[in-house]
Amino acid sequence: MNNPEIFEKTYNQYWKKLNAFSYTMTQDKDLAQNIVQDVFVDLWERKEELNINAIEPFLFRAVKNQVFKHYQNNRFDQTILEEKFEDYVIDNFSTIDPEIMDLLYSLLDKLPEKRKEVLLMYKFQDMTIDQIADELGISKQTVKNQISSAVKQLREGLKDLAWLAPFIIFNHKF
To answer: Is the pTM value of this prediction over 0.70?
Structure first.
């Protein structure tokens, strides 16, 4: 990373992804940009001493650590950040890397059959609640309840998969 051209290429290649991830965690545009900028400044300042084998996980981990550090210094409850991560995975389920999807499918398989069917129709087939209710011959309220219950169950399961955050975020196509 001693070469300014390589650094600039890395910056240009990852800025958008890192900023999007940082924003997902902070919900603050300026703070997200500042965190990513700090990560790149630190990377440049420590270029002589760092030996980085895989730049993507390194950058992601650095951004995540900076976000946690910021909120830790400001006495922020980290459970909010964990919930944002879980929401991100659930909301972007259909665009996540196929290898990670295999692990997420194992969570889906644990859902009751009807609940899984409703969630898949809603998230993967982009069907509306009305369309799902009509197709399955159930009430709209039942569809809403099934989606809510499925999301709750997935959220619980995702707590065990939090270590996957770097892979999920960095493999997401922004």
So the answer is: no
